[in-house]
Design brief:
The structure holds two protein chains of two kinds. Chain A has a five-stranded mixed β-sheet, with no helix packed on it. Chain A has a four-stranded antiparallel β-sheet with strand order 2-7-6-5, with no helix packed on it. Chain A contains no helices and nine strands. Chain A is mostly beta strands. Classes of the chains: A mainly beta, B mainly beta. At the A-B interface, strand 4 of A face strand 5, strand 9 and strand 10 of B.
């Protein structure tokens, strides 16, 4: 099971672009990369998922280099409401229950 | 918002009580999950129900008992809990190989 490493915390300011990088050196061929956002006392919210190169949706972009040993979640023009914990998970979609959750990155957005 | 509802949202119980947590998903998914999130700890998968199988985390004590009467409903029966069982209990659902979608959670306090 692939393990991920993320920064424990990050700070940024409103209107800035925020990039959170996740390392997953032992990612397997069948593994996908998934990011979630979680506010205090709420369930995690799915943000984006990808396998390689770049994925973009209305909320974020996910950049994955060719070796797939890391990934970067990019949040454009953050606001105070983006203050949350962000989790990077790596796992085989054939068995979602094998996704291993780490401590995540606590992102604090300042005015 | 996510199509997964949980009741109650908050629960306080004594160690001798018996209670049940309820989860309902309105997404037409075919797999449901129970997770536990303790303070300053990563999400821990407790149980999975899918069309193919039921999966249990062997470290979950027998005082937690899941029930899944159909693909839309999931229960977690609680009895003789301990104070260390106080946590946020999260229900999630997914379709086939898709990412889990989480409910808002039940904040459980065991006195």
């Amino acid at each position: 099971l692939a393990k991920t490493t993320q920064p424990i915390s990050m700070d940024s300011y409103e209107g800035q672009e925020v990039n959170i990088t996740c390392s997953h050196n032992n990612i397997a061929t069948n593994d996908y990369i998934t990011w979630y956002q979680q506010f205090p006392s709420q369930g995690p919210r799915f943000i984006i998922q990808g396998y390689k190169t770049k994925v973009t949706n209305e909320v974020a972009s996910l950049f994955i280099p060719a070796d797939r040993k890391s990934s970067t979640l990019s949040l454009p023009r953050v606001s105070l409401s983006d203050t949350a914990v962000y989790y990077c998970l790596v796992g085989d979609l054939r068995s979602n229950y094998q996704l291993i959750w780490g401590a995540g990155t606590k992102l604090i957005i300042k005015p | 918002e996510t199509g997964v509802t949980q009741t109650p949202r908050h629960l306080v119980m004594g160690m001798t009580n018996k209670k049940s947590l309820k989860c309902e998903q309105h997404l037409g998914h075919n797999a449901m999950y129970w997770y536990k999130q303790s303070a300053k700890k990563p999400l821990e998968l407790m149980f999975v129900y899918s069309l193919e199988e039921r999966v249990e985390n062997n470290s979950v004590p027998s005082r937690f008992s899941p029930e899944c009467p159909n693909s839309s409903h999931l229960f977690l029966h609680l009895h003789t809990l301990q104070p260390e069982d106080s946590a946020l209990y999260l229900c999630a659902s997914s379709q086939d190989r898709g990412p889990p979608f989480f409910g808002p959670g039940t904040r459980l306090t065991v006195l």
